[in-house]
């Protein structure tokens, strides 16, 4: 009886083992299938990204990509001339970069001010700076912005940049929140400017981007800034960007039509020459006073003057009763505690002035005449 009980228990134990093995096999197989399907779906999501639209068609794909990989840090780089006007903007920009750099959602890495004056200035100890040479006499042709691509060419050759990505920025950019890496692997991200219209100037564009290289639509409506791009891609683009900028400046038609934004067109053309398209990110930044809300944007670009009546009415083109215009401070830095805009002025302008005031009140040794 005891032997039969033992035999029955053995059979029962074997049966349990078989059931457990079946469950394990089914579960493992099922998990493998789920895993394969999840991988397949994730890849499919990534395949729906479209770099020619304002945003990826399936933004979830971009979020999944970030979740599946470690932080992809980018190095923030901006060019500077060494003027007082340029300097105070750099100080404010660097203040807000430091404020947001180490926050959880940030992928900001190091920071470099590329000083293309060829000599040190008073901000060397305050802001990480690399000195490069300006273009030889006469080459800039009274267009100081031509020094920008030349500065990047030099910096990329001489600097040891740890990050795989570079963000090209400008002194009059203010970060309003932590900035993640908006680039998607080999597809850089850039802000689309409404006034950069390659199709409108097809004949001129084709002088520098011939038909056999592709259609004019291959040229993105962007400048070099703001943009986040792989370092290896920028190393290819930068010399071409510089050469095309110089060629366009010497072209009478290009110089006349493109004017102050000539170098921006040159960057878009240089990218197209190397077959590089950018994801166009309208959420990269806002430009007051035309953009009235900060919303979910990352940067305020204060290139335009903001003029208002004391009733909060915009008087663009005419000096307002209340105004903030960076060009009011060409020879000295703005004072601390600028007057806030009157009631009725858009949030974007109010936020801009408040952020300038916070920076100037916290940056050591801030004062007019700097």
Automatic annotation (TrEMBL):
Top-level taxon of origin: Eukaryota
Lipid bilayer topology: Single-pass membrane protein
Matching InterPro entries: HPAT-like (IPR056508), HPAT/SRGT1-like (IPR044845)
Cellular localisation: Membrane
Keyword set includes Signal: no
Signal peptide positions (record): none
Domain Hydroxyproline O-arabinosyltransferase-like: start-end pairs: 74-366
Keyword presence, Ion transport: no
MF terms in GO: glycosyltransferase activity
Keywords: Glycosyltransferase, Membrane, Transferase, Transmembrane, Transmembrane helix
A GO cellular component annotation in the UniProt record: membrane
Record protein name field: Hydroxyproline O-arabinosyltransferase-like domain-containing protein
